[in-house]
Write a structure and sequence with these properties.
The protein is mainly α and 135 residues long. The chain has one domain. 60% of the residues lie in helices and 7% in strands. Strands 1-2 form a two-stranded antiparallel ribbon. A hairpin with a 2-residue loop joins strand 1 and strand 2. The longest helix has 36 residues. About 11% of the residues have low confidence.
């Protein structure tokens, strides 16, 4: 009987953790959508720069794709795909910002396995993890 109770409690916590993780991904989608909606970029002002327009369109497409991929029966694998898509969109939007501000487009850095917000991958060095730019 004790095993059944422990199993039920463990399952409940896993379910809650999964729900929390999925809610966090949903919040990431919403935050990126708000960033796009509040962005100052006006496509009509930059018709002479097709690369800039392509970057902006890529950001919009990434947002739409993330929303589409996260509808219905969601799981953590879907969440990982959505986070990668959002990262591509954020990079595209960062390129838009850089061009508007007269800076070079930023290099694309892969998501870190441990912390997707860092944009760099930890590598083993002398037995310790340390952050180094990937590339």
């Amino acid at each position: 009987m004790t095993d059944g109770i422990v199993g039920a409690i463990t399952g409940l916590f896993r379910g809650r953790r999964r729900a929390d993780e999925l809610a966090q991904v949903d919040a990431e989608i919403t935050a990126f959508g708000e960033a796009l909606a509040g962005h100052s970029f006006e496509p009509g002002d930059h018709r002479d720069d097709p690369g800039l327009l392509a970057d902006y369109q890529q950001a919009l497409d990434a947002y739409e794709q993330a929303k589409k991929d996260f509808v219905g029966d969601r799981n953590l694998r879907d969440a990982a795909d959505v986070l990668r898509t959002l990262d591509e969109g954020r990079h595209a939007l960062a390129c838009v910002d850089a061009v508007i501000e007269g800076r070079p487009r930023p290099k694309r850095r892969p998501l870190c396995f441990f912390d997707p917000d860092t944009g760099s991958r930890p590598r083993m060095s002398a037995g310790r993890l340390r952050r180094v730019p990937s590339g």
